[in-house]
Specification:
This protein is α+β, with helices and mostly antiparallel strands and 147 residues long. The chain contains 4 helices and 5 strands; from the N terminus they run H-H-H-E-E-E-H-E-E. A 5-stranded mixed sheet has the order 1-2-3-5-4. Strand 4 and strand 5 form a beta hairpin. 30% of the residues are buried. The N terminus is likely disordered.
Length: 147
């Protein structure tokens, strides 16, 4: 008899957090409008995509166990690509995401969200291409929820 394979999303606190963020943001009509009609948040920049869209950026989790409870501290960024000539378009979408995600009651499969906060919102411009981006950095703490 073979043992069942764990669901990779519920096994990974980072994947569970990313999935919960995606699900939570999908239903906001204002954010969809800012991004061209629907939430456009990807793992990788899609070929030929026209901004405004976002990608999951740098992420890191570290063990944050207290008294034997399995918990993780997360740092996760969302990078929003602005329309050409409009840094404001990326910033507006990033600010809406920040408003929605600050202390959002996200449901994470296999985990419990203890805290979620917006740590930083920044804007940059690529010197070579002139492309404007907004980066939203989130910090979270999750605890493993036994099956």
């Amino acid at each position: 008899m073979t043992s069942p394979v764990a669901d990779p999303v519920s096994a990974s606190p980072l994947l569970a957090l990313r999935g919960a963020i995606l699900a939570y943001l999908t239903v906001d009509a204002t954010l969809a409008r800012l991004m061209g009609g629907s939430l456009r948040l990807y793992d990788e920049p899609p070929r030929g995509a026209v901004p405004v869209y976002g990608v999951f950026g740098d992420a890191e989790i570290r063990d944050d166990a207290v008294d034997g409870a399995a918990s993780h501290a997360h740092s996760l960024s969302l990078v929003l690509y602005a329309r050409p000539g409009s840094a404001r378009s990326g910033l507006a979408a990033a600010e809406r995401m920040a408003d929605l995600l600050a202390d959002a009651p996200l449901a994470l499969p296999g985990h419990h969200l203890v805290t979620l906060r917006v740590a930083r919102l920044g804007a940059t411009r690529d010197p070579a291409t002139g492309e404007a981006r907004a980066t939203l950095t989130l910090q979270a703490v999750t605890e493993h929820r036994p099956a």
